[in-house]
Predict the structure.
Amino acid sequence: MATTDRLFVSGGAGLRLNGLQKVYLTGAGEVMGVAGVDLEVGQGSVVAIMGPSGCGKTTLLNLVGGIDRASQGRVLVDGTDVTALPERALEQYRLRKVGFIFQMFNLIPSLTALGNLEIPMAIAGRSRDERKARGLALLSLMGIGHKADTYPDQLSGGEQQRVAIALALVNDPPLILADEPTGNLDRSNTEMIAGLLAALAAEHGKTVLMATHDQRAAAKAQLTYWMEDGRLRPTG
């Protein structure tokens, strides 16, 4: 990844979860989404979380990313308590500190692949020329530079996923949260994306927290945890 040095310069972020809990209120009563999770992830680490569907993996990532609010406990990123941030500060945290790779792509259908990438860069204050150059470089890194002017519904599922991964990286976040990042990719693309996330950690110090069902993707992690009924335990 020597050619990516100009794309990724921010380094990583230390992550600590203390007694993190999320309770949902339903008509049937309380449902525990995340049940008192403690976790520490150092800069430059890739941590995989595996477990059955509905076990709390996505909820955990949403809590770390500031998409959802915890019922109890703390999310500390470089010592900052994300759970205590007011909404305006939380918006900046999501924009600048966290890169989300969502399971469902979350691309805007009326914008091209490049157009999708330019939106968060514009919000972050990057110039038009910088947005275009960085967006094209990231799409090329994903192997789809020739699809820059293509709309999402003209892309395959795997191509949309690669655009979504590029989107997560546009503002050079220190923390990358990946929810099934290889779920729509074939074997060769799975190896490429999993290898890219590992290289971002090893060569650029990014901190990667990945929820996955894919053993091949999890194999790139230094640590793997198993999640079930909202609880987390190390494997092995």
User: Anything to note?
Assistant: DSSP finds seven helices and ten strands in the chain.
